[in-house]
Amino acid sequence: MDGAAIPTVLVTNDDGIDAAGLRLLVQALVSTGRCRVLVCAPASDQSGVGHGITWRHALPAKPVNIDGATAFAVAGTPADCASLGVSGALFNGIIPDLVLSGINIGSNCGYHIVYSGTVAGAREAFMRGVPSIGLSYDWVASRSSTHDLKLAAESCLPIINSVLNEIRNKTFPLQSFLNVDVPTDVSNHKGFKLTRQGKSMIKIDWTQTSSGVSIKGDATANMYTNDTTDTEKISSSSPAQEQRWYKRVVRVTDNNSEKEEEGDDIDYQALQEGYITVTPLGALSCSEIDTVPYFRGWLLRVIDNSCSSSL
Length: 311
Prior knowledge:
Blueprint: E1 8-12, H1 20-32, E2 36-42, E3 61-66, E4 69-74, H2 78-87, E5 98-105, H3 112-115, H4 117-127, E6 132-137, H5 146-155, H6 157-168, E7 177-182, E8 192-194, E9 204-209, E10 212-215, H7 219-225, E11 231-234, E12 245-250, H8 267-272, E13 276-281, H9 292-309
Parallel strand pairs: 1-2, 1-5, 2-4, 5-6, 6-7, 8-13
Antiparallel strand pairs: 3-4, 7-13, 9-12, 10-11
Helix pairs in contact: 1-5, 2-4
């Protein structure tokens, strides 16, 4: 990024290009006048698809009208969209300075980061060498509103602007990307807090149902609120007696999330305390450090046994 040039920001998400969160984030970015905005987002809701990619067939990219931005809807996953968006192929050779994924309806903390298409969009850009940020809002059904989502997007602007400044000065570390979560009561948030990924996870059970159902609307929000009432049937050619249908259901606990780890710097806990959490992430899946001595000894035993059995 040239010091005198206006930076280019690519926006993607997992809720789909028509999602309110993406539109409000783009609106917030455009209103600052500080960056050129590109959009490459899934044509449909891709919540919970993780870091899946499309490999076996070509993907259509359709121009979409979004005020102040150059936008395309792609029939692929968030990782597909981020990869295509930073490749230079879609935007006539333009490679963005920063990728933003979100703003998602539903928080992405703890183990849910593994499932998150929002985080995957940011991770894919990071893996392609482009600085990135995943952005999520802790939406609560019957309490949160589109206005809160708008405030959540706007509350992330100081982080976004600061990262752009770091990129311009070539001081932003390329070894990590950021995952940002905004608390439900965004208008009364306690400020920004650096956190680390915890182990919180909504507990999921399965229940048998009479027919195939698919959650409509925002899948992430439904997962967090156990709202599966707005459904549509999935047709199947298999005889009814040869198959059974099962659907995921949230096991209700006091807060619909069981914390596996305590600490004031854990992402989920700090979010619930009202902070906007900023969690540096990487793409490597590292083992818990205290298991390494066990596996070192275990592997030595495997090697010894293997040598003994070959004699």
